[in-house]
Amino acid sequence: MEVLFPLSVVRKLPHLEEIKVVCCKLMCGIIEVDDSGKVELCNLRVLKLRDLPCIKNFLNVGSSPSSSTSHDQVSTQIAFFNGKRVSIPSLESLTLEALPDMQEIWSDESPLGLSNLQSLVVVQCKSLLKVFSFGSLLKLRKLHTLTIKDCVSVQEIFDLDGPSGSGNVATLFELATLELSKMRSLRRIWNKNPHGTMSLHNLKKLVVEDCENLEFMFFPSMIKSLAHLRDLTVSNCKKMEAIIMEEEEVGMEIVETLEFPMLTNLCLKQLESLMCFSHGKGSRETWSQGHVQSRFIALFNREVAFPRLETLEIMSLDNFGFMFLPSSVTSFTQLKELKVWFCEKMKAIIVEEEGLRMETSETLTFPMLTDLHLSNLTSLRCFSHGKYSQEARSQDRVKPHSTALFDGEVAFPSLETLDIVVVDNIENIWNNQVAADSFHNLKSLYVCHCHKLVNLVPSHILGRLSSLERLEAKNCGSLVVVFELQPPNPPDRHPTTCSLLKELILIELPELKCVWDEELHCQVIFQCLRSISVSRCKSLTSLFPASIANDLIQLEDLKIDECGIANSWRMKKA
Question: Cα–Cα distance between 27 and 349 in angstroms, integer?
Fold first, then answer.
């Protein structure tokens, strides 16, 4: 079938509300018309066209054009919808997928009727050159969702070149979700600075993925119009150099902090060329040198603030040695979840501000942080690289004052979940100067593939872990003891406290010699422990000291597999 309807049939369907045409390999048009025919689909609300390899236009003209209509016919050959001949005033949802010959969706002069369009999805239209012209933007007053995927020829989404001096502003009042994916030719989302021309006041979610030629996201002057943006994801954009990029020809400096007042979730992944979040006044000098000392660059500086950010995920950003400056930490007071993965050059999460000689004189705090995940950070040596290590940094290396991940420079009063995976440069998780208001709410600790780690819970931190319910350690080649409770001097006889630990999992720890110290009963009892699983710990010869075994009154599940245990625990009921 080459055509869905002849014009005569369409005119007999005045109440038609939905058209879906899928997988029609020979279809050349949806409606067949003659030279003078005009199509009106007054009640059509949903139009979905998918996998139509031969279609170029919505209308299929049945006879050769006369001289009076030749101009219209030329226009039809370019724009999928010939606006002078097609009217769909009630259209709310439009999906165009796998239409390989479509070059343009609509023309500027089109009276197609876009004022009610709420959702536009365009996927796998390989010949499409542009999505919106300035003229069409002026009509999209109700567009709520825009999704463009795998359109390999599109170089820009919004063409903002309109009539000079027109005074028109293309305000997409309702646009709340914008998703761009697999756009390998996309160089800019907008072809010029939209400030004063286009506004996105209601945009809440923006996702940009697999756009390998896109170099930046926003101009500084745009940020104020993104007042309601809540979710921002930028992933796998190989040439992305900055999220916010100053206009070179304008040379405008960022004279005040750029703020994303409502941004709640921020995800930056696999951006191999990213040099900073905001390329403004603070980074111009570095860039002008023609090279980047990437190991001294912090991802976030004082140019940008995120007062409501709750979730931050960073993955595979290989040009950064650090994430935060001390002065920028105060911008993340609402942060609840922080994930940092596969950043090979990341040496510390926080670094002292070089050049300002600013010491971390007060404890930095993440007051709301509940979940912290650090994974595959092979260069990470500490969480905060501050005042104690300035001399080492001046010698072009990072050697923190201790081999511990956490010290007294940063506090985590609300932290509940801590995951540490493939962090090979730490010997201890905590040193003996941990901030006073930290780790009291920690419920879950997971440590995996940390091959220099020698212990998990030293005596000085045990009292803080009063809420710990689950502890799991896997594949840590140097781990000798889990609870290292022998202090340098004879322990004081403090009142015994009760641990809430319910589950203990130990897997493939070849050097593990003991789990608990003999003196543990003087400090804490584990009467809540219900499940213990120990496997492939070949050096472990004894599991429980007698003083511990007597306290395990709630133990329900005990699994020991492939361990060197000669005598684990003798009791009547295992």
Answer: 57
**Cα 467 to chain center, whole Å?**
30
Detail the DSSP E strand segments found in 409-567. Answer: 410-411, 417-421, 428-430, 444-448, 455-458, 470-474, 481-484, 497-498, 503-507, 524-525, 531-535, 557-561
558: tokens are 């005990």
Report which residue type is found at 172: L
Consecutive H or E run containing 287 = helix 281-288
Rounded CA separation 483/480 (Å): 10
Domain count, the chain: 1
Residue 324 belongs to some domain of the structure: no
pLDDT tens sequence across 363-378: 899 999 999 999 999 9
H/E/C letters for each residue in 339-375?
EEECCCCCCEEEECCCCCCCCCCCCEECCCCCEEEEE
Find the domain containing 477 and state its range: 443-574
- Determine, yes or no, domain membership for 432: no
3 state SS of 334: coil
Residue 547 lies inside a defined structural domain of this protein:
yes
Is 495 within a domain?
yes
Tokens of 259: 């703020």
The SS3 assignment for 268 reads strand
Does 111 score more than 60 pLDDT? no
Give the amino acid at 16: L
Q: How far apart are CA 178 and CA 60, in angstroms?
A: 32
Residue pair 462/524 in contact by the 8 Å Cβ criterion: yes
Q: Tell me the per-residue pLDDT of 74-90, one tens digit each, with 9 for 90 and over.
A: 434 578 887 678 889 99
The two three-digit tokens of residue 479, written as one number: 């781990």
Nearest Cα to Cα of residue 55 among 19, 101, 20, 86: 101
Looking at the chain, the number of H-run helices and the number of E-run strands are: 8, 46
Burial of 30 (0-12, 13-18, 19+ CB in 10 A): buried
Task: Quote the CA–CA distance of 245 and 155 in Å, as a whole number.
Answer: 18
